[in-house]
Design a protein that fits this description.
single chain; alpha/beta; five-stranded mixed beta sheet; two-stranded parallel sheet; 25% strand; globular
């Protein structure tokens, strides 16, 4: 479909149910219909490290996946208000993962992601930073990652989740069904 200029967007029921505002704003952004929002330029923002609770509150309101466990949380502040958050998790040997980035969807934040990432690199001097992007929302050729100098390492196959079909519907990651964490009864019969 890409050759015809068509992009399909898959939205899960629980995303729309729990994050309707974020989903609708993402669609507007993809369609280029965000131009009537106030613009905030990175040069007018200060970068401040924040605690996990503050990052969690912001990401719950502005990121479709909410908060992800992080070691470092940076925020972009404009006129005393947090307008963007970028979080990182550390691994061994100065390797890091960029776990979340979100800006306040009430604004068009120009260059803020790049400024947050540059600040992180200057403060923490990582040897390597990796990140994962949901292909449903991130174009593979022109996106925040490529603008910040990331290179595409690979594309993972689609994964699965379990669905608890109560109302409201809930998708549950397969990680929650490992035998180590489930109460499993094992029966044996010996003759």
């Amino acid at each position: 479909m890409q050759g015809k200029g068509i992009k399909l967007i898959q939205i899960f029921e629980d995303e729309y149910q729990y994050h309707k505002d974020i989903v609708l704003e993402k669609i507007k952004h993809i369609l280029g219909k965000s131009e009537n929002k106030p613009k905030i330029y990175a040069r007018y923002c200060s970068i401040v490290e924040i605690n996990n609770e503050t990052a969690k509150d912001f990401l719950k309101k502005n990121h479709i996946q909410g908060y992800g466990k992080s070691s470092v949380c940076l925020s972009a502040i404009y006129e005393g208000k947090i307008i963007a958050v970028m979080t990182f998790k550390s691994f061994k040997n100065a390797e890091w993962e960029l776990t979340r980035f979100a800006s306040d969807y009430n604004y068009v934040c120009c260059g803020v992601g790049g400024k947050l990432f540059k600040c992180f690199v200057n403060r923490y001097n990582p040897d390597k930073v990796k990140s994962f992007a949901d292909r449903r929302w991130t174009l593979s050729e022109d996106n925040l990652y490529t603008k910040m100098g990331f290179e595409l390492d690979g594309i993972l196959k689609p994964d699965y989740r379990y669905v608890y079909s109560n109302k409201p519907v809930e998708r549950i990651h397969k990680f929650n069904f490992r035998k180590q964490i489930m109460n499993i009864l094992i029966f044996s019969k010996y003759n």
